[in-house]
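Tutorial handout. Part one gives the primary structure; part two gives the three-dimensional structure as tokens.
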Amino acid sequence: MITVDGIDVGYDEIERILSHISFDVADGMFFGIIGPNGSGKTTLIKALSRTLTPQSGAIFLEEKDIASFSYRDLAREVSVVPQETNISFDFTVEDIVMMGRHPYLTRFSSETPADIEIVRHAMELTNTLRFRHRSINEISGGERQRVIIARALAQQPKILLLDEATSHLDISHEMEILSIITSLKGDVTVVAIFHDLNLAAHYCDELILLNEGRIVSIGTPAQVLTRENIRDVYGIDVLIRTNPMTGAPYVIPIVDQPVPAGGNLKIHLICGGGAGTDIMYLLHRKGYRVTTGVLCVNDSDFTTAQELDIPCVSVPPFSQVSPPALGELEKRLSDADAVLVTTMPVGPGNIDNIRILTRYPGDRIIMVEQEEVEKTSGDFTGGEADRIIAALKADGARIAGSYEELLTHLLTMKTKTKQ
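Part two.
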């Protein structure tokens, strides 16, 4: 286990880069370090490798202070892959990888057959064996980085530190190397810096988020990669989705599209179970006047509406749509220029949200049917919800299969409203 206990780290007595950093990394874990430029990520890796000595606090490997290790003993425990590696001499690739065996060799000893086999295996893992006899200065930057990773693997460390080690690789080789490193989990503890938050979420068991030399959050990718954390640290707005293949969070930056502002068009959104969150963000940023509901106050869409100051017709947790709420909904629908209906779960508790729509002209209704939110849909009313939706479509309700189509429909409706 790695234990970082209250370290402060800087490059001189005045400049402090990291302040009061404490965390643990369990044996065999893939642990990611994320944060914006200048947050202290590389400084932390340097402290873990003893390239920098903390001004205060300590770092322990299996309860032993790393300051007490000899350089040879520490090299048998920890290997490092830096961002950049400058090699002046004209070594062959195989020579470079063999350098990973130096901590195990005495001053005048030569490589053993076992050392040669370990080096060969490391090159096979990193797909560098095919140019083992070439000069390190004759291969590409990406190939060189794979050689440096092979050298680190030949070191057979218990802990592998990666300072953006795949930054020079194309996406296929990047994923190949990260998959190789992931396969070492259990035998090797990996601590890696990531700029790509989605790669960090995919490969890491836990993350630490740094900003201005301090810890903002530590935990699983789902705990750390929240919209609030990313907005506070990186200064951008994002959507957080769940990768359907892995279950890991997936970060999608929100980028304004060059479309006209919403103006005075009034929109009421029928949603629930998180199906309306993205749409609320989109419409809010585009300047549309939005209302929503009826929603239970424990619904994630209700939380989004509160955060964006979107008026919402609400009921208590786990409640059905009440007569007063239904009356308020009717007022919102009557006042709206357009009504959006998301693909959402419909049951006895919220069926009145769509029953009431049969009283309104179909051409004012837009059914938002994106594939990525269909997993949240479901008719739990014995078929009534599906029949209502079909009737609304038959009455002229428009279909939006993407946000672009939704915005196009709204622009058309806006033009009609003005006429």
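Part three, for discussion. Confidence is low (pLDDT under 50) at residues 372-376. The chain has 15 helices and 20 strands.
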